[in-house]
Amino acid sequence: MRKILISTLLLCGLFFQLTAQRPGGGPPKGNFGSQPSITGKISGILLDSTTNKPVEFATIIVFDPQANKQIDGTITDEKGEFKFPEVKLGTYHLQISFLGYAAKTVKDITLTPEKPDVNFNKVFLAPDGVLLNEVTVTGQAAVVENQIDKLVYNAEKDVTSIGGYATNVLQKVPILSVV
User: Fold this and answer.
1) 55 shares its domain with 93
2) 4 to each of 12, 13, 17, 127, how far by Cα in Å?
3) Predicted confidence pLDDT, tens digits, the chain (179 residues)
4) Which residues contact 141 (CB under 8 A, 6 or more apart)?
5) Residue 38 and residue 86: Cα distance in Å, rounded?
6) Is residue 25 part of a domain?
7) pTM value?
8) In Å, how far are 128, 131, 132, 138, 140 from 135, measured between CA atoms?
9) What is the CATH number of the domain that holds 105?
10) 97 three-class SS
11) Are residues 149 and 114 in the same domain?
12) Residue 17 within any structural domain of the chain
């Protein structure tokens, strides 16, 4: 009985030993022994170059120049701050734009394992003034004008009174009765 019990235990131990081995042999594949992947952070404050006031709600885009595609995007808050908390290591461009300002591109932002975080303390955006040509506003007086102390009827503005008699014109005046 004792021999059967020892034989059974040895066979079970050998079975468990065989099932614990990997089919291809060698060390396990994957990231089990390596460091976790590092991500970086890009942040800063966007300011108006003439007033030094924060530029609210400007659009900031992280652009990968090698793949020629947009990676991430955000808008600035009321303090002009922007933040990209998890950006993979690599080289990027920032494209900054806002209505009334000249678009700006910050090139070659490199995130490395030694320096994964980039903080732009202040990024200045220049106003983009557009000079408009002269504008002329023309208008015509209304046929009937209600002023403070009187009601004015402009007969020369009434198209139906052209070529008519004075009595026809007076009949069209509001609050006037012609007999």
Assistant:
1) yes
2) 12, 14, 20, 91
3) 667 766 666 655 545 554 544 555 555 555 544 455 788 999 999 999 999 999 999 999 999 999 889 999 999 999 999 999 999 999 999 999 999 899 999 999 999 999 999 998 899 999 987 777 888 888 877 777 888 888 787 777 777 767 777 777 777 777 767 76
4) 154, 157
5) 9
6) no
7) 0.54
8) 20, 12, 8, 10, 17
9) 2.60.40.10
10) strand
11) no
12) no
Count of domains for the chain: 2
Q: Are residues 55 and 98 in the same domain?
A: yes
Question: Which residue, among 111, 124, 125, has the nearest Cα to 62 in the 3D structure?
Answer: 111
Residues 113 and 45 in one domain: yes
Tell me how far apart the 2 most distant CA atoms of the chain are, in Å.
140
Residues 96 and 145 placed together within one structural domain of the fold: no
Same domain, 61 and 86: yes
Cα distance between residue 120 and residue 114, in whole Å: 18
User: Cβ distance 57 to 75 under 8 Å?
Assistant: yes
Structural domain that includes position 159: 139-174
